[in-house]
Structures are given as C-alpha cells and as structure tokens.
Amino acid sequence: MNSTITETLGNVDHPRVQDHCEEDVMSSVGISSLSDEILLCILNYVPVCDLLLNVARVCRKLRVLCQDKTLLTHVCLSEEYTASDLSFRHVLKQLASQVQSLSLSGCYWLSGSTMEHLARCRAIKRLDLTGCRLTSLRLSRLLESLSCLNSLAFDVAPGFNSAQLSSEAVDLLSRLSELRQTLLTPSYGVVPCCSQLRRLALQFDIPDVTREGIGVCCQLMVGQSSVPHYQQLEEFSAKLAPGEVNQTLLLLYLAVFSVHVPERLRVFLVSIPGPNPAHWPAATPLAHCLGNHSSLEALQLPRSWWDSMSLERALRGNSPKHLSFSRCPALWTQVFRSLLEGGVRDAARLVSLNLSATSHSLYPESSGIRGGEEQLGARTMSRLVSVCSKLQHVNLMHRHYHHENTPGLDGEPHLCASLSRLQHVRSLALPACALSDGCSSRHSTAHTSPSSSLLRGLRKAPRVGLQAYKPSESEPSLPRDSTSGLAQLLSGCPLLETLELIGPGFISTLPRLEPCTRACIEPRGMCAWARCVGDSHVAALQVLPRLRRLTLAGLPGIHKGTGLIPVAKHCPNLQALSLANLGCLKTMNYTASLMDTLRLCTQLQELRLEQPYLSANASFFEALSCCSRLKRLCIISRSGTFDPVATETFVARCPSLCVCHIFMGGTLVACRTLQKVLIDRYSAARPALSVVIFPLQHEDLALVIRDTPLTLLDKITLFQSRVAQTPLLAPCAPV
After folding, report:
1. Where in the numbering of this chain does the F-box domain appear (predicted)?
2. Burial label, 372 (beta-carbon count in 10 A; 0-12, 13-18, 19+)
C-alpha cells in the first residue's frame, strides 16, 4: 500500500494523476468556503420557511447568514403551501425583529389564531393579509400592536363590523397611506377611517344571491361619518366581479368624486366586466380635472363612462405610463389620435397598453369579422410602435388583423414586423389571425363560393374502405401558411416572458369574471386567418429562452400538437402553460404530443387544460407526473373522462401539488369519493391542499366554484388573460 502511494506521488506530473488530484482538491472545497456575499446571493433564492426552519440548522455560519436583514426585511410567504400553522408560527417568531414588509396573500388555510402571532412583528410597515381568515376583532388587536404600519391589505368578509375596532386601531388606520380591500360583503370596510390614504385598491367579489337564494342589497349608512374621503388620494383602482351589487357598491365608493376630485390624483383604474356597465355621472368632471392637473400616469375606464371629448381632455398635456381601453371600441380612435398627434405630452413614457375587445358581433366563417371597427390597421400600429417604443405590456386580444386581401393593406408591413421593434416588451397578447402571413383570395373563395358549398352539401357519406368523393383539380387547395411574420416578431422581442395567442371568439367553459360574454357572443365559425395558425407557428416559439407563461386557446389549425415539443425542449424557464380548445373539438388529436411535452416540462408549476374530449387516463397522468414541481392543476372537459386510480397515483408522485381542480364528466358520487380520498390522505402533509373534482354538467357547479378560495380561482382554475387588464401599480394591485 505504501509503495502504491509513493508511486502515485512520484507520478503526480502525469496528466491523469494531476486531474485526479485537482478533483480531490475541488471536492474538499465546501459551501462554507464561499464568501458571505456569494452565500447571501444563493440564500436569496431559498424560500423563507426553508431558510429559517432547515438551512439555519446546518451550521453556525449559515445560522448567522439566515438572520441577515437583506433576507428577512421583505418577506413573501404567499405560496408556502406545505407550511402548517406551527411552521408559520416558528417563522413569524424569528421574523419579529427584522421584517418590515410581509405578504401572506392567499394563505387561506392558516387559522385565525396564527394571524394573532403577527403582533410580534412590531417593526412591520407593509402587511398583506388578502385571502386570510381575519375578523374585525382580530384586525383591531393586530393594529394595536403594529404602530409602524402604513400599508394594509385584507378581506372584508361577511360579519365584518368597523364599530368593533378600538380607538387605537382607528388612530392607526387614520395614518395609513396605502390600503387594499377585497369586499366579500356590502361594506365600506375601513375606508372611512383612513383619512390620509394616498393609494386605494378595491376588489369587489359579492354575489347577487346568497347560497340560500336570498338577494343581496347594498343598504349602507350614508352618514358623514361613514362616507369615504379622498383628500390626499393619488391612486385609485377598482376591479369588479360580475353582478349588479358590485356595480352599485362601486358607485357608492365613488360618490365623493362627484363633489370633490382629489387634486393629486394621477392613477384611476376601474375594471367592470360585462357589456353594460352602469353609467357614472361624475366621469366628465373627473376627466376635466385629470386634464387640468397634467399628472395622469395610469387610466382605465368602462366604455360607457366617457366619450371621446372627455378622453381627449383627460389625456391632453399628460404623460401616461399605463392605458387600458378594453371593450371601448368607440374610444380607440381618440386614443390613437392623442398618442400619434401630440395629444399627450410624452407618448414615449407609455409602458403598458390594452386595446383588447370583447366582441359582441357574429363571426361569419367567410371573413371572420362583421364590421371594420374590430380590425387593426397595420399603418396605425406601425406609427404607434414608433412613437411608443418603450412599451413592455401590449394586449391586442379579441381583435382582428388580416395581412392580405384587406383594403388598404397592400405593400404595408406585417403587424408582427411592427411589433418586433418593441425590444422592451415582456408580455404580449395577440389574436391568432395576427400571426398569419396571409391567405390568398383562393383561400377565402374556397369556403364561400356557391359552387364549392353546393358540392360539399351534395357529397355522399363516405363508406368504409371506399372514398366516395375526390376533389377535382379545379377546386383550389388550402395553401400552407408561412411563419415569416412570427419569426420577425420573435427575433425582435428577446425579453418576452408572457405570450398569449387566442383565437377570435374563444369563450371558456368556466369564465368566472366574464360569464355575461357567453350570452352576448355567438361565434358561427372561426376566422379563416386564424385557421392558418398551426403547429409550425407554435414550434417557432422555441426561440424565446425567457418564456415563462404561455397560453394557446381557440386555435383550430393545431392538429397533432407537435409544435409543443420543441417549445418544452428549448424554453427551460416555462412555468405556466394553458391550453384550451386546440384543433378539432370533436376529437382530441394532440394527446401523444401533449404527453411528450409534459415529460419535458420539468420546471412547470401551473397547468391548465380545457378540451371537450380529454381522456385523463393512466398514461396521461404518468406523463404529467414528470412535472415534479407542479403546484396548480386545472382540467376542464365537458365530455372528458378521468381515471380515479391514476389521479390518486399522480397526486402522490407530485409532492408540491396543492391545487387540483378537475371539472369533467362522470357521476357526482365518483367525483366526491375521489375528492374525499385525496383530501383525507394528503391534507395532513399539505395544509394548503385544495381539491375540487366535480361533474361539469351538475347544477351545483356555480356554488362549488364560488366557495373555492378566490386566490386559487384567479391563479389557475379560470381562464383569464394575464395581461387582459392594465398592470395595476404595486402595492395596490388587486390579486
């Protein structure tokens, strides 16, 4: 043995021996040998619960570093789904002396007694308790201990009574500068107590009818002591769920604006779903006030509130950063005029622009649109991109863009070529037809000419083993659309992280915030240009290395789904994937490609699938089990089937999964049995586990959706555009 060691040391200059010695030296270097600065950068990526409960126990050095103020000053615990009440209490105990900003948004599983441990964090300045269990008495006791608090977010649940707040709590509320309220019952909440507010964000989610079938009314006290005052207000935002109660309550909150408009107001964002928002008489005075102050930064409004003249006055002389005119086709002309013709002081400051439209017209199969007001103009968009070159968020959804055979577009650049000049864009929502390089005139006539339609109507049904009809040479074939326009777009937008491609007329089966659209939209066919978008277009998305969220919906041109596989291979940061109504709706032809894609999505955390005939069998869930980091899953299939045993095996293989919502076919007994088994077996190890398995055709489906935690529904269960609304300014942004 000694001779062997001597021989090895003597031959240290040999290349193989030298490499072996270097490997031994590298293996002897541990993580404790790194500098504190490098270790802090590494620890910054570790969740706070793991940091304090696990990493801090490794050694003395890591224990000291885990208590560094750079790691514990601003803490977010909103997605610590595996942490129990006991774990949260230990974490809050260690955070007590250092944390200044804490978010528990969406921690619906925590008990009310755990909320009381927040009183230890006496240095906290910003606190987000949206979605947590918080009564008026607990809120009062909590505010009495947090004397440094200046930003608060919480839910106003049924039974909340501001009269139960102590004088110390009211005194603290009077000094708050930022407030975010989610209203689950008609109430002013604590807004009347907050006389120094600079930022106010409201989210209304009150049903018109209770579970017992009793109507909800807004009988609020309108005495001077309970009316909100906004003397110091700078930012106001409100996001409404459908319902007359929510709109009525919003007008009560805005009643003060008809008397006095805050002089410092620079952000006004109101999102009301549905085709007929209630009229607000004070909209015109507000527009005049915004135009006179010349400090407007963000604007979003329902289409029935302002006319083009009021909008022109509101934008005149301002330099807005965020503009949203969704469902406002009558105002788009004035928007373009203000941005392109000097109606605003500096259009280059615009960061986000929302020009999406929920169409209310029928879509004939021949042309895809009825009326020219919904179609984007290539020349106008090209000028807009040149003026607003710093745009980061763009939403052009539910519009149309046809590059060829549209009057006035000959020789003009493709819309994708114009958008490719937005080098700073991070999120983009486009209609599917905007990716098409064009359909020849033969393409349109092939579907609409009387002769071809007559021939198709007189064709005999095909027999087994015999082709009864062969197309003649005179009947043109559909050309294969190229991806040159999309390639230009992708090459010019290297920072793109969120992309949504949705076919015109697509409506989800479970739209929570837009249920009224199902009554006012009756699509008779898909836009012909949208039909040209297929697997090759999806495959072209593989050149986006930063892509994190991808949504594909209402694309009949995707048949086999082969384009999803290269995206999964070359987009390693993909964390959220949403697929809905791809290809033929009568059969699901991309199952094999979908399973191959899921096997490659190792970083996927959110998955949403909506397809009428989805077969969630053992093979499907086995492929889905490869997504080991999956946290949220939603499957919607009206005529689909699922395997209960495979579902249970999948949940066991994915320890991070805490949201499992399945709305498919099957009996109510089978769904409830599987739901109970999953909850009983895994809720102990996963305190935040939310399992909803329910027949899609059942009459009580609406009640099940309403009783599911709101934050989960907003994140994954319901199909809703990530960039459909103008990004609200933090920290007032509704969930």
Report:
1. 28-75
2. exposed
Residue with the two structure tokens 């509101």:
314
Instruction: Identify the burial level of 308 via C-beta atoms within 10 angstroms of its C-beta, where 0-12 means exposed, 13-18 middle and 19 or more buried.
Output: middle
Helix axes 283-293, 308-315, angle to 10 degrees: 30
Name 632's bridge partners: 606, 659
Structure tokens at 712: 């989960």
503/96 Cα distance (integer angstroms): 50
- Cα–Cα distance for residue pair 37/697, rounded to 1 Å: 57
DSSP state, residue 204: E
Q: Are 389 and 414 in contact (CB under 8 A)?
A: no
DSSP letters for 539-562: HGGGG-TT--EEEEEEETT-SS-T
Q: Is the pLDDT score of 360 beyond 70?
A: no
- Residue pair 426/495 in contact (Cβ under 8 Å)? The answer is yes
User: Lowest-confidence range among 27-36, 348-357, 609-618, 690-699?
Assistant: 27-36
What is the C-alpha separation between 494 and 546, in angstroms, rounded? 8
Cα–Cα distance for residue pair 3/137, rounded to 1 Å? 80
Q: How confident is the model at residue 281 (pLDDT cuts 50, 70, 90)?
A: confident
The C-alpha atoms of residue 599 and residue 578 are separated, in whole angstroms, by 16
Find out whether 431 and 397 touch, Cβ atoms under 8 Å. Answer: yes
Which residues, in sequence order, are bridge partners of residue 57? none
- Report how far residue 384's alpha carbon sits from residue 341's, in angstroms, rounded to the nearest whole number: 10
Q: What phi and psi, each to the nearest 5 degrees, are found at residue 565?
A: -65, -50
Asked if 297 and 266 touch (Cβ cutoff 8 Å), the reply is yes
Q: What whole-number distance in Å separates Cα of residue 289 and Cα of residue 298?
A: 14
Q: How far apart are CA 321 and CA 579, in angstroms?
A: 31
For residue 275, the model assigns a pLDDT of 67
Contact by Cβ (8 Å): 318, 342:
no
Q: Encode pLDDT of 377-398 as tens digits.
A: 778 888 888 999 899 999 988 7
CA distances (Å), origin 451, targets 146, 472, 568:
77, 12, 44
DSSP, collapsed to helix, strand or coil, labels residue 476 as coil
The phi and psi torsions of 375 (rounded to 5 degrees) equal -95, 135
Contact 597, 625 (CB under 8 A): no
For residue 306, the surrounding DSSP H or E stretch is none
Which tokens belong to 533? 């978008």
* Whole-number Å distance between alpha carbons of 310 and 288: 7
Q: Is the pLDDT of residue 479 over 60?
A: no
**Which H/E stretch holds residue 472?**
none
Q: What is the pTM of this model?
A: 0.82
Distance, in Å, from the CA atom of 584 to the CA atom of 534, rounded to the nearest integer, reads: 12
**Paired residues of 395 in beta bridges:** 354, 429
Q: Give, in order, the Cα–Cα distances in Å from 690 to each of 616, 650, 709.
A: 19, 15, 8
DSSP designation for 255? G
Main-chain phi, psi angles of 608, to 5 degrees: -130, 125
**How far apart are alpha carbons 313 and 336 in whole angstroms?**
14
Structure tokens at 240: 């409404």
CB atoms within 10 A of CB 296: 26
Identify the helix (H) or strand (E) that includes residue 471: none
* SS3 readout for 338-387: HHHCCCCCCHHHCCEEECCCCCCCCCCCCCCCCCHHHECCHHHHHHHHHH
Q: CB neighbours (10 Å) of residue 26?
A: 8
Coil, helix or strand for 458? helix
Looking up tokens 């149309």, which residue turns up? 400
Q: Got the DSSP string for 115-171?
A: HHGGGG-TT--EEE-TTS---HHHHHHHHHH-TT--EEEEEE-TT--GGGS-HHHHH
Record the tokens describing residue 18, joined without a space. 């030298």
Hey, what are 223's tokens? 């005495």
Q: How far is CA 4 from CA 18, 19, 23, 498, 703, in A?
A: 16, 18, 19, 60, 77
Q: What is the pLDDT of residue 626?
A: 93
